[in-house]
Amino acid sequence: MKYDDTTIVLPTYNEGKNIGKLIGMLLKSYPNISVLVVDDGSKDMTREVARKISRLYKNVKLFDRSEEGLERGLTNSIVDGLLLSRTKYAIVMDADLQHPAEKIADIKAALGRRNKIVVAYRAEVPGWALFRWIVSKSLIKIAYAVLVIRGGTRCRDIFSGYFGTETAFFKKVYLKNKQRFVGEGYKALFDLLKCIPDGSVKIAQVPYTFHVRMAGESKASSKQVLALFSSFLR
Ligand SMILES: Nc1nc2c(ncn2[C@@H]2O[C@H](COP(=O)(O)OP(=O)(O)O)[C@@H](O)[C@H]2O)c(=O)[nH]1
Ligand SMILES: [Mg+2]
Questions:
Q1: 1 found inside a domain
Q2: 212 lines ligand 1 (CB under 6 A)
Q3: Does the chain have fewer CB atoms within 10 Å around its N or its C terminus?
Q4: Residue 126 pLDDT more than 80?
């Protein structure tokens, strides 16, 4: 399969221990794929590592949001990454090695079958703390109900951070619905699904196993739960 029509968008905040390894894996498995690291002013080596690799490979780029004075946020970063992608397709994934890179092949294949969105869903979540699991399950149930009430598109993992889209499609939906995205939030896919009337486009789903984080820390916090509730109302 050809990958020169695909950009991998990697939002990063303090992923210095992971980013080099991940980009190495991506370039090895998918030569010619474009990689766009979207960083929010990491305090560790993330930007130095990404910049160094970007000097060696013309298909790897770093967008340093802090340098542009942009407001921090995971959804803001994902949106910027997708808007800046110059390829027909883009795939968003975490930069902490929790999303298995081998699934990119399946996501890209499904995008090639004219799906506007391809969501990688967590078939297994090993090693999660019970409390985090309960909070996550409850929020998913509420958010799913919000999508039903508001007539948005549904899928198995509406909170997935691992998804692909046709970039022109994303840009069109986003530019029409900017105010419905919560920039500081963590659930860019949920914001997007909310803006797509149920049944209006073809979407596909691909299973994957969520890995335990080996290095660096999760940035998830109660602030993002508040952001999610604000997204329910937009
Ligand atoms: N650019 C950017 N990336 C972020 C931000 N917060 C988290 N990330 C990145 O988004 C991905 C998922 O974040 P993580 O903290 O692992 O969330 P979790 O998997 O839900 O615990 C990782 O690649 C993080 O480095 C942010 O505010 N800005
Ligand atoms: Mg993570």
A1: no
A2: no
A3: N
A4: no
What residues make up the domain containing 203?
Answer: 6-233
Tell me if 157 CB under 6 Å of ligand 1. no
Residue 192 to residue 200: CA distance in whole angstroms: 13
Instruction: Please name the amino acid found at residue 159.
Output: F
Residue 14 in domain: yes
Q: In what order do the strands lie in the sheet with 60-64?
A: 60-64, 34-39, 6-12, 89-92, 163-166, 117-124, 203-209
Say how many domains are in the chain: 1
Answer whether residue 107 shows pLDDT above 80. Answer: yes
pLDDT tens column, 151-172: 999 999 999 999 999 999 999 9
Residue 199 belongs to some domain of the structure = yes
* 202 CB-near residues (< 8 Å, 6+ apart): 114, 115, 116
pLDDT band at 127, cuts 50/70/90? confident
Q: 21-41: per-residue pLDDT in tens?
A: 999 999 999 999 999 999 999
Q: Which residue is associated with the tokens 């090993």? A: 126
Please give the Cα distance from 82 to 176 (Å, whole number): 15
User: What is the atom index within ligand 1 of the atom nearest the CA of 46?
Assistant: 25
77 Cα nearest atom in ligand 1: 1
- Alpha-carbon span 14 to 16, nearest angstrom: 6
Which among 163, 166, 191, 158 is positioned nearest to 177, based on CA atoms? 191
70-80 pLDDT, tens per residue?
A: 999 999 999 99
